[in-house]
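TICKET: design request
STATUS: open
ATTACHED STRUCTURE:
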């Protein structure tokens, strides 16, 4: 059913794109971006499955997953698509580079915030039970940082709890404590700040209108300072 649903959603992207009412010339310009965006998303999903199964134990693997599965798909390529649809002049190479410089680090920061909320967030605000990421065994950047910083005893505790579907409230609290004690929680907050700063710096030098710059700056804050 999941495979069929994925196929259906891919079909719907074509229907929505071609039924958008945009002129054929705009659709032609945007088609290449849409195609590469979908291809990169599939690559990101594959890398995610590979990381969950093999788990390199380092931060580089989860960061690569986040880049393809979240940053490109959620922010970078949609900006490229908008530029392509807007007209030939809007696809200026300097503008595209600016969108990439803004979109990739912001997308990573967005996912890091999501990972933190998945463990430390308030279920009443996030809309999902606390600790689901732990029980599902998600090998996020947050977890990878914790594993790198952990002592042998802390690493054993992390491995014992991660991916155990029976982990209850006490286990979730223990896992949270390990993330705090290893410094992984604080390190991810630092990473978020660094990536947001990088994104805003790229936005500042991008050839966009003041209105667009202000809107995208607001988006950067909303996407990474959220609590749900």
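STATUS: resolved
RESOLUTION: sequence designed for all positions
ATTACHED SEQUENCE:
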């Amino acid at each position: 059913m999941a495979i069929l649903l994925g196929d259906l959603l891919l079909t719907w992207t074509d229907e929505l794109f071609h039924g958008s009412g945009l002129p054929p010339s705009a659709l032609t310009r945007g088609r290449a971006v849409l195609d590469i965006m979908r291809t990169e998303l599939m690559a990101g999903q594959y890398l995610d499955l590979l990381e969950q199964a093999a788990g390199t134990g380092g931060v580089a693997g989860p960061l690569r997953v986040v880049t393809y599965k979240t940053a490109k798909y959620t922010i970078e390529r949609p900006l490229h698509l908008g530029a392509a649809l807007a007209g030939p002049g809007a696809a200026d190479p300097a503008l595209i580079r600016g969108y990439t410089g803004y979109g990739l680090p912001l997308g990573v920061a967005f996912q890091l915030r999501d990972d933190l909320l998945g463990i430390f967030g308030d279920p009443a605000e996030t809309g999902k039970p606390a600790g689901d990421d732990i029980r599902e065994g998600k090998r996020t950047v947050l977890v990878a940082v914790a594993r790198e910083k952990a002592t042998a005893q802390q690493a054993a505790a992390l491995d014992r709890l991660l991916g155990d579907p029976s982990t209850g409230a006490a286990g979730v609290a223990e896992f949270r404590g390990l993330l705090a004690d290893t410094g992984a929680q604080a390190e991810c907050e630092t990473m978020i700040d660094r990536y947001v700063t990088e994104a805003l710096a790229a936005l500042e030098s991008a050839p966009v209108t003041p209105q667009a710059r202000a809107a995208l700056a607001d988006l950067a804050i909303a996407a990474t300072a959220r609590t749900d």
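CLOSING REMARK: The chain has eleven helices and no strands. Residues 36 and 53 are 26 Å apart (CA to CA).
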